[in-house]
Sequence to fold (320 residues):
Amino acid sequence: MRYLITGGAGFIGSHLAEELLRRGHEVAVVDDLSTGGINNIRHLKTHDRFHYVIDSCSNVQLMAELVDGADKIYHLAAAVGVKLIVESPVRTIETNIRLTEILLSLANKKKRPIFIASTSEVYGKSQEFPFREDQDLVMGATTKGRWSYACSKAIDEFLAVAYWKERKLPTVVARLFNTVGPRQTGQYGMVVPNFVKQAIAGAPITVFGDGKQSRCFTHVSDVVRALIGLMDNDALYGNVFNIGNNNEISIGDLAKQVREMCGSKSEIVYVPYEKAYEQGFEDMQRRVPDVSKITAAIGWKPSIALPQILQDVIDYHRRA
Ligand code: UDP
Fold:
């Protein structure tokens, strides 16, 4: 199979590319290196089934050619990271909506099956735990930049589902819950690489808010397995799936666990949200997935527990 991965030099995209190559497929990657990095794919560049283009997915002519040359598409290119989103809401909204529109429209011309990456952020302020794909989404005010990410991704989801319903374009959507692993950078606000880097450096570990908010972390290799399983099954088009783990941990406890696993003496400091992000910032207090839909569909379950996930990230940053 020939796969096209947009955002393929990103954290998740590069792991997906690697695994598809390992399974004997041909992989083309397009990435503008805005949040991804050439280092993520450097080791793949000599592979004879690997091709890459450094450009934006907004280059419609290029994307038309790449879509034409692919059997299936993974659209992962997006503005990600809470810090980036709060600092650059225009870029977030425009990138996330425009690129998905372009990819879906081009995929539709050739009727190429396409996967659209979404996020657990779309559940917003919902208090119905664990989150199920068919429950209501609860968005915050439009004056709070954070929620623009959730809304832009929700629009992407609506569009993907609409293309399937109205035009019979094979689309699949997945909502990813805090994916972590080697190659993820803490530059755009992701908590695990940030804490690990701080702990290794002996610098203060910065817990935002009171640290009682919690998350569930999934290893990138589990996520990649789910992404491949979803696109390998023709019966799943038009569906939305959660991909996540239920290893819930508070951010305060995560800071302690990372510090301990690193053998670090870092101080744990609490930073008010308005200092970390912006005045009036609203966090999600909990984010727990129900994965029964994807388990029933393809038998997928997360296989890597939190201590192993953290150890992998620690080893990666120590080597780096
Ligand atoms: N967070 C933190 N310190 C950091 C980065 C993030 O305490 O250096 C918190 C953040 O406020 C949130 C959680 O960790 O409550 C997860 O943040 P992340 O940016 O990784 O992703 P999110 O789940 O918010 O999309």
In short: DSSP finds eleven helices and 13 strands in the chain. The first helix runs from residue 11 to 22. Residues 82, 121, 178, 189-191, 194, 206-209, 213, 215, 251, 283 surround uridine-5'-diphosphate (CB under 6 Å). The longest strand covers residues 26-31.
